[in-house]
Amino acid sequence: MKKLFSVWIRTLYTSDINQDLTRIFSGSTMPKRTKVRAAPGPGAKKVKPNPAPFSITNDFQFSPVPELMRTATVLQTPEKASTDKKEYRAIRLKNGLTVLLISDCTYPLDKLDEEEALLAAKEETAAKGELDDEEEVSLIFKQCWLKAFSCLVWIAQIYGGIAEGHPMSKFMWGNTKSLSPEGMTDAEMSKRLHSFRDRHYSAQYMTLAVQSQHSLDTMQEWVEQIYSLIPNNGLELESFKHLDKPFLNPRYNKLYRIRPTQDIYQIDLTWSLPSTLDRYRSKPLHYLSWIIGHEGKGSLLSFLRLSPQEPNSRIFKEIQEIERLDYMYKEEKQPCDNVETLCENMQFFPAERFLDGDDLLFEFDPDFIKQCTDALVVESVNIFVKTCDISESELDQVEPWFNTKYSESEIPSAWILACKDHVYSSEFHLPEPNLFIAEDLSIRSADIEGSMYPVRLVEDELGELFYKKDESFLQPRAYIQYHIRSHLQLQCLENSIMLDLLANCVLQLMVEDVYPADLAQLNFSLYASETGLVIKVSGLSDKLPRLMETILKHLTAMSDTIQESLFNAVLEQQRKNYYNHSIKPSKLVRDVRLI
């Protein structure tokens, strides 16, 4: 039983503290920097991977320093979901470091052993060799540049360059040139780096999250002994509020074009909006993205600039309830992922909101929402177009770091006039009330005993019904699979293709009606199998019958509702899917073997 301790600290610590952590936590080495491992090559040697730096083993010995015991200040306890069985404590050490302690005694110890053994096996497989320092640096930069060859990165760097005089306009990644400024010696670079560390890497700026199966008192004692040693420079956190408007310059509100590496056509519309970091309680951008990205009936991309309606409290309450249910009944994260997420949240939210501040909506703020919607106008939009239709000769500018060719021009007046045309405004409206949001969250008592395997409840001429009682999670969830068996698709190739077409046409027909169910965290799938048609639905059980009824309604009415244009589009896409499937060697070999 080894891996009982998961730790994530949001900022770095100095090398002397690193040595103290090495002394107290297991793992004979906590390297000063991460080693890069690569596939075996000339001169490569196999190296057994080091144990995880933040894991406590059976040979762990703790020697407390009395002066550091019970020196922390207890903060307000974070509010948690009613379904969360873990215990929490937020504290602030005497050096100013903020800590969240998480005691989880619900995770089986034997499962921890299994997971650690699996992880060790994966690490052993991955450990093919170590590189020397020069090769390591070269590989890091090579990987960085390879990742840079994507349109997303190119656009991000061009976009940052628009913010002239702002830190965003600097190189966002790093290479040998940016890390070796001309005219600067190694000694001077080292001095500047240490100066930066001393200014910004200080205990009062740091957050730490620790999750373990130990008690809160035990974890607090350990944390006080170890992390109280991190120095505090006594300085206030540097503020960058004077840099909150990076795009107030003539280069914004333009049309930018680049050639992508793939044959795609994409338009990105971007607006520079006020900061919302301090508006986590209302999350106005969450509200806006919910409406703009809605794909149900009356879905819209331009509603906000066409409609005079005010922010809608009914929609906000729907979003609020959906997020509350998702937070309450979400799947448990792995400890290592959980502490990483929470440690970052601790940088932005007060102690009582460490757990839910990033997920829940607490209050409706129509004034700020309107302030954001008023800014979404063509006069302040910036446009990036990715297309292969533009010639190289038209790309008359070059981004200096990635050498990306692009063009910059005024937005065509015809585009601006089209955006102001209200002729299609009547076709867009706000989303209708979501009928798939769960209301009844009670857990029904089953009238059968629990069993290891599903039990057959019904067997007649219409089919069979099996049921498996949940005795572990005890949540108002259900997982339902319907298998409509048929032998017709096995009679000939044409019938098999027809079944695929049936499933794909139904999926297209019902996309608007089932989209609200997807928003309400209900899941579904419909596909053709070798023995028939399969329908799966899952999620909070209250509205699952409504989702199933919606799917069956479209399935039974397909022949009356399908239009020829939609059918032809589905048919063409299915041809492409078959082709893409057949050109993959692994798929082709398997299919040929079955002939």
Mean pLDDT: 80
Low-confidence stretches: 12-58, 125-134, 301-305
Q: Which fold name fills CATH's third level, the topology of the largest domain?
A: Cytochrome Bc1 Complex, Chain A, domain 1
Name the CATH homologous superfamily of the largest domain: Metalloenzyme, LuxS/M16 peptidase-like
Can you tell me the overall shape?
A: globular
Question: So, CATH architecture of the largest domain?
Answer: 2-Layer Sandwich
Percent of residues in β-strands: 5-15%
Rg, rounded, reads 29 Å
Supply the number of structural domains: 3
Q: What is the number of beta strands? A: 15
Strand order of the largest sheet: 1-5-4-3-2
Distance between the termini: 50 Å
What's the CATH C level of the largest domain? Alpha Beta
Note down, in words, how this protein is organized.
The protein has 595 residues and is of the alpha+beta class. The chain folds into three domains: 5-147 and 200-227, no CATH class; 249-427, Cytochrome Bc1 Complex, Chain A, domain 1 (2-Layer Sandwich); 455-562, Cytochrome Bc1 Complex, Chain A, domain 1 (2-Layer Sandwich). The protein contains 18 helices and 15 strands. The protein has helices at 15-24, 109-126, 133-148, 151-162, 186-200, 216-227, 284-292, 303-306, 313-328, 335-345, 366-375, 413-419, 493-509, 511-519, 544-556, 558-561, 564-582, 585-593; strands at 5-9, 73-74, 87-92, 98-103, 207-212, 255-258, 266-270, 382-386, 397-398, 405-409, 455-460, 463-467, 477-485, 523-529, 532-540. The chain has a five-stranded mixed sheet, with helices on both faces. A five-stranded mixed sheet has the order 7-8-6-10-9, with no helix packed on it. Strands 13-15-14 form a three-stranded antiparallel sheet, covered by helices on one side. A hairpin with a 6-residue loop joins strand 9 (397-398) and strand 10 (405-409). The longest helix has 19 residues, at 564-582. The protein is globular, with a radius of gyration of 29 Å. The two termini are 50 Å apart. Mean pLDDT is 80; it is low at 12-58, 125-134 and 301-305.
